[in-house]
Design a protein that fits this description.
Elements (H helix, E strand, L loop, with lengths): L5 E4 L5 E5 L2 E8 L1 H17 L3 E10 L1 H13 L5 E2 L4 H16 L11 H35 L6 H11 L4 H25 L6 H39 L2 H7 L4 H38 L4 H11 L2 H27 L7 H31 L2
Parallel strand pairs: 3-4, 4-5
Antiparallel strand pairs: 1-2, 2-3
Length: about 375
């Protein structure tokens, strides 16, 4: 220990003196004083202190007592001379006993790169197993429903059809019209350079029917319905209502999941069709403003947009809807405990649905390209 004195004074008057191998504290040692002295006290303790003298402390808070105890611990369990004032000495004793009874947990061991990679791989495999297991439960539920179709809750199915489909028509009409207008204007700008504005209806029509209609409808369904499924089922999970159904011998998958997945799958082609039609209407208004009559627009669409394009887009929408319903229900049933569980489940449902839709859309693009469709 250095022989010279090192003194640090807090704003409220607490004093810390370091002389030889003793660290002395004096004055009031409250929360503000302890915070001001903490860095210097820890540094002095690391340099080497054999004893701590707190006899000059006139008042002591819990934070100040923790400071004295931590300095002693960092100095190798150096002894502490308690304050002369009785209440301060009692505070120090109670805090020291509490810290000794509940010591701080040791720092976690350092994990190497190979170990972290292995843990990540094991966690990914477990997540995949959980998702495949849930998919298997849903498939078994569908098989049981085909054998006993009267188990399907028709009233619940119509409720979800209304919430996921009917109440989403207004949003789809608005988005579809705006998308058609935007695509028409943005396509007309480069086409005008080549005098090819007449090809805008073909471009917009194929883009909407094959790609943008199902994709934007899926985004709407993921934002509205997947989050609603996850929040509703997550609340039931937190309130132990799903466990109560299992205790009563009722399969939660058949009772709660299947109507929601079926409703999402049925409404998605309808929403995609609404997006397609309203987008074409919006594009028609723009073409009318550019001097292209509606009859010419209709003829172009009939020549270039086939029924196969429409069916392909609607089939994609059906798969998107089933996937969104499946992910939303799974996120709700896997909700944990705590106040943030339901919000985390809704967020997981939306993010997972969007990622799954984009991945499926890419797979469909590859398949359609290989099939020449």
């Amino acid at each position: 220990m250095q022989g010279d004195e090192d003194q640090a004074t807090a704003d409220q008057g607490a004093v810390m003196e370091s002389a030889e191998d003793t660290l002395r504290f004096s004055g009031p040692l409250g929360t503000a004083e302890a915070a001001s002295l903490w860095p210097r006290a820890m540094e002095a303790a690391r340099r080497g202190v054999r004893s701590i003298d707190a006899r000059g402390v006139v008042s002591l808070s819990g934070t100040g007592a923790v400071l004295l105890a931590e300095v002693a611990r960092h100095a190798g369990d150096a002894p502490i001379e308690p304050p002369g004032e009785h209440s301060a000495a009692e505070t120090l004793k109670r805090m020291s006993d509490a810290l000794a009874a509940a010591p701080a947990p040791p720092p976690p061991p350092r994990v190497g790169l190979v170990t972290r990679t292995g843990q990540l791989a094991i966690g990914t495999v477990k997540q995949c197993q959980t998702r495949v297991g849930f998919l298997g439960e849903v498939m078994l539920g569908w098989a049981g429903l085909l054998a006993r179709p009267w188990r399907l809750r028709i009233s619940e199915l119509f409720r979800h059809l209304d919430e996921a489909g009917t109440r989403g028509f207004a949003l789809c009409i608005l988005l579809g019209t705006l998308i058609g207008v935007i695509l028409a204007f943005q396509s007309a700008i480069p086409m005008r350079k080549f005098g090819a504005e007449t090809f805008v209806p073909q471009l917009v029509g194929i883009s909407l029917v094959r790609e943008l209609g199902p994709l934007i409808a899926a985004i709407v369904l993921a934002g509205r319905t997947a989050s609603a499924y996850a929040a509703e089922l997550g609340t039931m999970k937190v309130n132990e209502e799903i466990d109560a159904l299992s205790v009563m011998g009722i399969d939660p998958v058949a009772w709660l999941v299947l109507p929601r997945i079926l409703a999402a799958g049925l409404v998605m082609p309808v929403l995609a069709l609404v997006m397609d039609l309203t987008g074409l209407v919006g594009m028609g208004f723009v073409m009318q403003g550019l001097g292209i009559p509606p009859s010419m627009v209709m003829n172009s669409l009939q020549d270039w947009v086939s029924v196969g394009d429409l069916w392909g887009g609607l089939f994609k929408a059906l798969i998107f809807g089933l996937t969104i319903g499946l992910i939303g229900c799974r996120s709700g049933l896997k909700t944990g405990g705590g106040p943030r569980a339901v919000g985390d489940a809704a967020t997981s449902a939306v993010v997972g649905s969007l990622v799954a839709v984009v991945v499926l859309d890419g797979l469909f693009a590859i398949i359609f390209f290989r099939l020449g469709w």
